[in-house]
Amino acid sequence: MRVLACGEDAVLLDCADLDDARRRHASLVGHPDVTEAVLGARTVLLRGHPATLRALARSTPPSDDVAPRDAREHVVPVRYDGPDLAEVARHTGLGEDAVVAAHTGTSWTVAFGGFAPGFAYLVGGDPRLVVPRRATPRPTVPAGAVGLAGEFSGIYPRASPGGWQLLGTTDVALFDLDRTPAALLAPGDTVRFTVADRDVLAPDDADPGPHRHGQRGGEGS
Amino acid sequence: MSLTVLSAGPLTLLQDDGRPGLAAQGVGPSGAFDRRSLRQARVLVGDGDRPTAVLEVLGGGLEVRADAAHVVAVTGAVGPLHVDATPVDHGRPLRLRVGQVLRVGPFAAGLRGYVAVAGGLAVPPTLGSRSADVLARLGPPTLGDGDVLPTGPSGEPPTGPPVPHLLTPGITTVDVVLGPRDDWFTPGAVATLLGTGWTVSDRSDRIGVRLDGPALPRAVDGELASEPVVRGSVQVTSAGLPVVLGPDHPVTGGYPVVGVVTAAGVDRLAQVRPGETVRFRRHVLH
Lengths: 221, 286
Description:
The structure holds two protein chains of two kinds.
Chain A: E1 2-5, E2 10-14, H1 18-28, E3 36-39, E4 43-47, H2 50-59, E5 73-78, H3 85-92, H4 96-105, E6 108-114, E7 116-123, E8 138-141, E9 145-149, E10 152-155, E11 160-162, E12 165-169, E13 190-195, E14 211-212
Parallel strand pairs in A: 5-13, 5-14
Antiparallel strand pairs in A: 1-2, 2-4, 3-4, 6-7, 6-13, 8-11, 9-10, 9-12
Helix pairs in contact in A: 3-4
Chain B: E1 2-7, E2 11-15, H1 35-44, E3 54-58, E4 62-66, E5 70-78, E6 81-83, E7 86-87, E8 94-96, E9 101-104, E10 109-117, E11 148-150, E12 172-178, H2 187-195, E13 198-200, E14 208-212, E15 227-228, E16 233-236, E17 242-245, E18 252-253, E19 257-261, H3 263-269, E20 277-282
Parallel strand pairs in B: 12-20
Antiparallel strand pairs in B: 1-4, 1-11, 2-3, 3-10, 4-9, 5-8, 5-10, 6-7, 6-9, 12-19, 13-14, 13-20, 14-17, 15-18, 16-17, 16-19
């Protein structure tokens, strides 16, 4: 790990990889000398006094746990009818059904946020699903679109331009100003995609299992 | 207690101290681009110790009518100011009677003016702030003609001294701390960054101040994995040109950041007009 300068009131930890970054983030987030700790793909931004942060980062071993203790599990139902499903099937050599099976077959982990409010970069999925971005980004991607780019999967919190390969759409609200925190997904959370069933009703709030998110917008659990 | 917008000008936004600390949710800091002028305007109307929202006026051209007696002040960019037909001073508290109109003319120096009203602008906050984030599309909408802006309760009458404007014509020099990714550039590129008079592009906005000049050659090829960026980060695009990130920057970026402009430097950059010249001066942290 290297500690890089990042202006008057921050430093940037340049870590070996995402796993190392997550362990260092977990060991430093919440420390009284750290005003804010933000994960990147293999970096951690620490806000505070640079000299203090340098000493702290060098003297603090990375955590044994990659995820914060309050990490949550989310189940996200997806309608797999996206415009790039055929292209992803062609690129990966899997059939469309096998792409869906691969996307729903493993649990994904929230690595870091960015791009837009509520957007999360998800990692740890089936390695066969690594695909390039679209050569030309779409001017508009609908809210709830579920896509792939590189090693990542992600969900567009709202309509925006975007270059990810789109597999389908979910009704889960990724960002809701009436909720605290507004972003549904936090670093360390896990996401399991499921094939949406149009007959499934919003889940019972008493469900003791992982956080299941209904298929209609506006759910607040 | 309110102000009515008679003319909103080309781009007028509500701004306060923004939304720090929410980067993990993908929410950027936003807030006033020139924070020094924000603080000065608050002090002049007696709100120096309150995080009130003010108007950030791009280029001038704002007209607002007082629907009650209000104390207002204008700081930042400088241009003709009138209450009704009477010229008034920049950087002083101004008392408006019911029905009087404050006219902020086109700025002759600087780019962003700040109009504070005693008690602040009391629109509902979004995630704890009344700042308009033009990238994330959070916070109050861009001001429009006919908008009615509610104001909060004001405190003691202001007694602070007038504020001199410190806008100086000519070249603007800002301090920059090298890193985190200065080692992605050749030593010659860093010398060029520090030795060039950069021209501010007209494609600049609150997301970033784009600079035109010689391309900065990279020492490291390839893509940078997305990493968190801060206000003032000097990103270098694939074309080799610097972009200094403003308050509405995205929370992560994939372009290497050669240096980070100091807070005071960002305040000055907020006031540089397209076509004007910016220089960087190396600042070493102690």
